[in-house]
Amino acid sequence: MSIKRVGILTGGGDCPGLNPVIRGAVRKGIEVYNYEMVGLFHGWAGLLNMDSSPLNLRSVSGILHRGGTILGTSRTNPAKIENGYEIAKENFKKMKLDALIAIGGEDTLGVANKLCKMGLHIVGVPKTIDNDLCATDFTFGFDTSVNIIMEAIDRLHTTAESHDRVLVVEVMGRHAGWLAVYGGMAGGADVILIPEEPFDLGEVCDLLKKRHKRGKNFSIVVAAEGAQPKEGAEGGEFFTQDKSLDAFGHVKLGGVGDTLAKAIEKKTGFETRSVVLGHIQRGGSPTAFDRVLGTRFGVGSIDLVHKGDFGKMVALQGNKIVAVRLEEAVAKLKTVDKELYELAKVFFG
Ligand code: F6P
Fold this sequence. Notes:
With 349 residues, the chain is an alpha/beta fold. It contains eleven helices and 13 strands.
């Protein structure tokens, strides 16, 4: 089939690195393949509302270092809209799109996979600070977020040490602990708690007391927002900000840091404070790693369009950019390897 017009959208939580992907796909799409490139705004809402604008070389000039996404994003889910998928398919034709590049996490790519099965020509690009997508070693956004967490922990070390305090740092990552493990290890955290291994409050406090015994009267505890206690008042429940769900059924996680800080202070008598890094972890300019990975993913995605290799997602395996089936990528979450967490534990306490 001859391809003339290619759409591109960014869905789900934003992250640094999205603009390098858009820039890579648009630059090569226009300059090498002579495509018309079209930006769809705010994720799948852009297709459902036919909300788009042409993208040219000027559109993507000067965006390599910019965080966020020039196209905007949303968590719009066609499944939550009456006849949403049929409307999306119809609009794909009305907009005269020959192909579409969907940049997103498991939710956005799950929609892309369903639309592929309905006959649409779509290529996926894996995106999330959580790094919880299967079939790719890393997603862009993750490295930038790890560096933000590391820099925050470096800062928190000095104030914790000055006050002989325990500081509990709550980080993002949803139901995977990659950000907590990488950010915690890079920042030299004394305890790291992740969703993959429910924690025992008594054991956490014993580790902190062990530090105090060897004269280290301050500690940093990193807790992933999805971390859960083995038992206790919450009975192993997730800590949530409220019970509302987003369009893909996700609860708003949050609160483990504060609850844990209060419990630690009560149990050990050590003065304890909590810090929630929140959306700072998703902001600002992408690191060099994420700029290069985003660029490689963007160019790789337009190459897949050119080859007509649809229903696939670009992925990083080793140092190679490969194509994997969307089906495989969205089948399950990629959680923290047990051996990595065991290695991190060497430095606990
Ligand atoms: O998936 C990325 C992420 O930042 C998660 O780590 C976090 O739980 C969620 O998005 C927050 O979503 P929102 O920005 O919609 O509050």
